[in-house]
Amino acid sequence: MLNNEILKEKDIKIAQNRQVSTYKNDIQATLADSASLYGKKTIITGAASGIGKSISIRFAEAGSELILIDKDKKGLEDLSDKLSKSGRINSIYNIDLSDKENIDKFWNSLEQRCPDILINNAGIYPFMDYLKVDRAFYEKTLEINLNSVFWMCQNFIRLRGNSGGVIVNTSSIEAVTPFKEDLAHYSVSKSGVIALTKSLARDYGRKGFRVNAVLPGAIKTPGTENLIKKAIRGLQFKLIKTALDFNSRLTLGRWGNPDEVAKVVLFLSCDLSSYVQGAVIPVDGGFLSS
Ligand SMILES: NC(=O)c1ccc[n+]([C@@H]2O[C@H](COP(=O)([O-])OP(=O)(O)OC[C@H]3O[C@@H](n4cnc5c(N)ncnc54)[C@H](O)[C@@H]3O)[C@@H](O)[C@H]2O)c1
Asked: Which atom of ligand 1 approaches the CA of 217 most closely?
């Protein structure tokens, strides 16, 4: 860093401190303290890819210790290597969350490492014609997208007891406005996540739990990029047409990147959102607004 840049940074810090001391009776904590997650432990599911990976990186930057879960072993190990210098990795768990037994085993293994924050992000969004959906396919979607969230939240609230905590669940714009064809099973699972979020916010708010949800939409991740590639390769015209209609509703005129979701999840997890409860927040480039 150049000398004059260091000076500039110092000047800004001095000016910020001066401002804080001027307003200190009007604010509860500085912005830096409110956004910090130092001293916190966070569980992040689906951490190996896309939105979950970005959340992990942002949370490490904000100072949280990380307990990362994914069924993708290699992706999880790569992320853990990437973040090893930050010193924020507490542990990684290569498990399939669609099996409740795995979830229970995971919570039993935590012992003293009681997490403060739970981010339920893992999910799948396979397309399937409603009339072709069979029981196994339907149940698999619900197991990972909804039931795992249900059991993860239950274990978290049980363990935290009267200490409270923060939960952020990942739903989808498709829960509110089913737009793409062949996703009825998915929309059902993600609507359930909203219902669960609001129910837990109501039941446990007075015990110190804040529970909110994000509704991502049109986020470029390995998951969505694979779908687009498949549609183009398979010349699935119906899907391509829907994608074009979908894009026209993005009032920001572009797809989002996973870090843009991660920043909202960070906001919902730290003290900046201390009075936000039972909220479902779209992070969708304006899709739901148009
Ligand atoms: N990308 C979008 O535009 C978008 C839009 C709406 C909602 N979402 C939701 O956001 C979340 C993340 O999506 P993404 O686009 O980053 O997906 P992604 O496919 O890139 O990443 C999802 C991660 O979850 C993990 N996972 C899937 N099933 C699992 C299981 N049974 N056990 C453990 N881990 C499992 C995967 O291995 C993967 O690492 C999902 O819940 C998805 O439904 C995404």
From this structure: 5
In total, the chain counts a number of residues equal to 290
| Ligand 1 centroid – CA 43 distance (Å) | 15
Ramachandran region, residue 286 (left: φ > 0; alpha: ψ -120 to 50; beta: rest): left
Spot the catalytic one: 93, 186, 204, 275.
Answer: 186
| pLDDT tens digits in sequence order for the chain, 290 residues long | 445 555 566 666 655 666 666 777 888 899 999 999 999 999 999 999 999 999 999 999 999 999 999 999 999 999 999 999 999 999 999 999 999 999 999 999 998 789 999 999 999 999 999 999 999 999 999 999 999 999 999 999 999 999 999 999 999 999 999 998 999 999 999 999 999 999 999 999 999 999 999 999 999 999 999 988 888 888 788 888 888 899 999 999 999 999 999 999 999 999 999 999 999 999 999 999 99
Mutate which of 125, 191, 196 for ligand 1? The one with the most ligand atoms within 8 Å of its CB, which is 125
* 262 Cβ neighbours under 8 A, 6+ residues apart: 51, 54, 55, 57, 58, 59
- Which of these, 56, 59, 62, 90, lies nearest to 75 by C-alpha position? 56
Burial of 32 (0-12, 13-18, 19+ CB in 10 A): exposed
Contact criterion met (CB below 8 Å) for 212 and 280: yes
Domains of the chain as residue ranges with CATH:
40-289 (3.40.50.720)
Q: Which helix (H) or strand (E) holds 65?
A: strand 65-70
